[in-house]
Design goal:
By secondary structure, this protein is mainly α. The protein is 66% helix and 3% strand. The protein contains eleven helices and two strands; from the N terminus they run H-H-E-E-H-H-H-H-H-H-H-H-H. The protein has a two-stranded antiparallel ribbon with strand order 1-2. Helix 2 packs antiparallel against helix 3. The longest helix is centred in the C-terminal third of the chain and has 25 residues. The termini are close together.
Length: 291
């Protein structure tokens, strides 16, 4: 379980030891929550974005988490981890729902046989966890359903407009991040805008990465719709637009009243996202030690 995906992760070279430990404790805490609430298989859903959800929710509310030594799911190893908080429980729900909807979005016809078999396995093992998470938080499930419907409409329209094409994912992340805000209307507005920026950047980068596959299979891709003919041009266009979204995010993020873990969140929201979009030059590679 050492492999995780997602772009909203810390930038390790600038991360203090204290913040590194806090992040690891939250990571293990969310994984433990997935295991105890939704079963061992649901732990495969965990991405870096889910850990950020937990930290943001607790930090905006000023809700300190208790760190305890507990068994790491799927192992006999005991490590320090954050105990159940509202942020950790919400992050687990979001990760299960996201994992389930990623399965539904897969292009079944494009998968080789072994991947189809793996997809069927994932569907069978994750279905019960999804049903439980959707029942626990039906409002979140409605957000995912609306995003899926919007995405289908945009694919049908074959839109050339980058803003319209990225709108479903942008709206999804905007709605998800606004859930993390307190009752303060200005904070909710800022969090919604931050989520929209993250969703827009993620959509553009995902489409640039799938450019060649979409071109080969004659599927809709916003870069193809704009007449871009090679992957390098698509990647450069995505990079420029995603950097603009990341800069917009920083302006909204600086308006937030973050009560806990400020330096850790600064690292993720400013340096981490920027590095994911436009990697910094590093003299030496740095890697995570994950549970």
């Amino acid at each position: 379980m050492s492999q995780m995906n997602g772009r909203m992760r810390p930038y390790l070279p600038e991360l203090t030891i204290r913040d590194y430990n806090t992040y690891q404790w939250y990571l293990r805490g969310v994984r433990r929550q997935l295991y105890t609430t939704y079963g061992l298989f649901s732990c495969c859903c965990l991405r870096y974005n889910g850990v950020l959800f937990a930290i943001l929710d607790d930090s905006l509310a000023g809700r300190p988490a208790t760190c305890k030594k507990m068994r790491v799911p799927g192992t006999l190893v005991w490590k320090e981890m954050m105990c159940q908080t509202q942020g950790i429980r919400l992050a687990a729900q979001v990760e299960v729902l996201l994992g389930w909807h990623r399965l539904q979005d897969a292009q079944w016809g494009d998968l080789p046989l072994y991947k189809k078999a793996r997809r069927v396995r994932d569907w069978l093992f994750l279905r019960r966890a999804y049903e439980k998470a959707a029942a626990e938080n039906p409002a979140l499930e409605r957000i995912f359903a609306q995003e899926r419907d919007q995405a289908n409409v945009q694919m049908t329209l074959n839109s050339e407009n980058y803003t319209l094409a990225s709108e479903p994912k942008s709206n999804l992340y905007g709605a998800l991040y606004s859930v993390l805000a307190t009752d303060d209307p200005s904070q909710r507005k800022s969090m919604h805008y931050i989520g929209c920026c993250i969703g827009r950047a993620a959509y553009l980068m995902d489409k640039a990465e799938s450019f060649l596959r979409d071109k080969l299979r004659k599927r809709y891709n916003v870069f193809l719709a704009n007449g871009i003919t090679n992957r390098e041009a698509a990647v450069e266009s995505a990079r420029r637009q995603a950097l603009a979204a990341a800069n917009d995010l920083v302006r909204a993020y600086n308006l937030l009243d973050i009560k806990l873990n400020r330096t850790l969140l600064d690292n993720i929201m400013i340096l981490g996202l920027r590095h994911a979009v436009d990697p910094f030059q590093e003299n030496q590679p740095v890697s995570w030690e994950l549970p």
